[in-house]
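Input (structure):
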C-alpha cells in the first residue's frame, strides 16, 4: 500500500514538511504538453483547439459557415452475426469530433479535429470515419 508508514504523522508534521518543501505536490505535466484553455465558457484541451474555435466562430459570424458544433459524437460500427445467423450492425466505439460545420452554398458537412499529436487511436478512427460515413476528418 502506498501510504504505509504515514499512519503516525500528524497535521503539524505535514505542515512542517510543507514549509520545507518536502510534501508539496508538483502539478503533473500533460502527456502532450498541451495547455487547457477557457474561451466562451468552454474548456478546450489545447490553445490550438481554442484558437481554431475562435476562427470558426468568426467565419460563422461573417456568414461563411453555419451549423457550427463542438464535440459531436459519431458511432463507429461493424457487422455482427446474431444468434440466428443474420448479420446486424453493432456499435463498437464512438469518435468524438472536435468541430463540425457546414459551408454556405454547398451543404457539405466538415468534420475537424485539432491535433498536435496523431495517436494510433485517432488514425484508426479517422480511417473508420472515411470507410463508414464517407467523411474525411480535417486536421487542424
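Output (sequence):
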Amino acid at each position: 500500500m502506498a501510504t504505509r508508514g504515514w499512519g503516525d504523522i500528524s497535521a503539524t508534521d505535514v505542515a512542517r514538511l510543507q514549509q520545507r518543501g518536502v510534501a508539496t505536490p508538483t502539478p503533473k505535466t500533460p502527456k502532450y504538453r498541451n495547455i487547457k484553455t477557457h474561451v466562451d465558457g468552454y474548456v478546450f484541451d489545447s490553445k490550438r483547439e481554442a484558437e481554431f474555435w475562435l476562427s470558426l466562430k468568426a467565419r460563422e459570424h461573417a456568414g461563411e459557415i453555419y451549423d457550427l458544433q463542438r464535440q459531436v459524437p459519431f458511432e463507429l460500427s461493424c457487422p455482427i452475426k446474431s444468434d440466428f445467423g443474420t448479420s446486424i450492425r453493432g456499435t463498437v466505439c464512438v469518435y468524438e469530433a472536435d468541430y463540425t460545420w457546414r459551408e454556405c452554398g454547398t451543404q457539405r458537412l466538415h468534420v475537424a479535429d485539432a491535433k498536435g499529436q496523431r495517436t494510433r487511436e485517432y488514425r484508426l478512427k479517422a480511417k473508420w470515419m472515411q470507410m463508414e460515413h464517407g467523411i474525411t476528418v480535417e486536421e487542424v
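Notes: The CA atoms of residues 95 and 116 lie 17 Å apart. Residues 63-139 form one domain.
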